[in-house]
Amino acid sequence: MQTKRMTFQHRWLPYALLAPQVMITLIFFIWPASQALYQSVLRQDAFGIHTSFVGFKNFMDLLTDPLYLNSMKVTLVFALSTTLLSMSVALLFALLVNKMLRSRDVYTTLLVWPYAIAPVIAGVLWWFLFNPSIGIMTYLLQGLGFEWNHRANANHAMALVVIAAAWKQISYNFLFFLAGLQSIPQSLIEAAAIDGAGPFKRFYSLILPLLSPVTFFLLVVNIVYAMFDTFGVIHATTEGGPAQATNILVYKVFRDGFIGMNLGSSAAQSVILMLIVIGLTVVQFRFIERKVNY
Question: Where is the chain membrane-spanning (predicted)?
Fold first, then answer.
């Protein structure tokens, strides 16, 4: 079997084609990351006039700071809850839509729309729905005898941001789960049904293992999403409150850096957050991927 190889008339053409992406990566990714690493070992005043080298003192202060340790705990609960909720609901929707024939495209389009909404808009939407004064969901919960107030109750606040963040990500997960379900040969499912396997038996023994590559991919993406891309949701709903109950790591970086003007500590938090995400990704690919059936 012969393989075709692309040839260019000019040697500089491949580099010219790669140049825009390389420039974007350097300007918007490599340069900010290098600046975070540089500022994480410095301490400077709020006006940036006096700067001193402190080494790893910013990191040591963070690891002994009760507020930062609480933020790590909050981030863990938030990331796991958001990932579990968004993936489970998306899988349920994908299973239901996959059984449809005529209206499949219509429901797919409707379920994809929320992904086009910005995170901050999603946060504002759910903030209005659960507003203690004018929210329709709050009114319905009061009719059931449940008093909702995410401004004063830490559990309510965490539930609100988890619902808002998961709702934003369900569309993304739904598309991949639906594509995975449509790639499963229908003959396998029919053979299992002929052998006497019921719907739940077919799902756990056949469909779910065949969806493991998609599930593994979405697990990595959703954890990274919950730890990085949910800043707008937190900022629009609870602003980290009440009493630091929803102050996840990425939002604490913003509060300490842009509001508290503690740039050294904020940069150190950015480095730690980056290392945590890298570590989680390595663990997932190193250990969890072994159980994935390709």
Answer: 12-31, 76-98, 110-130, 157-182, 203-228, 267-288
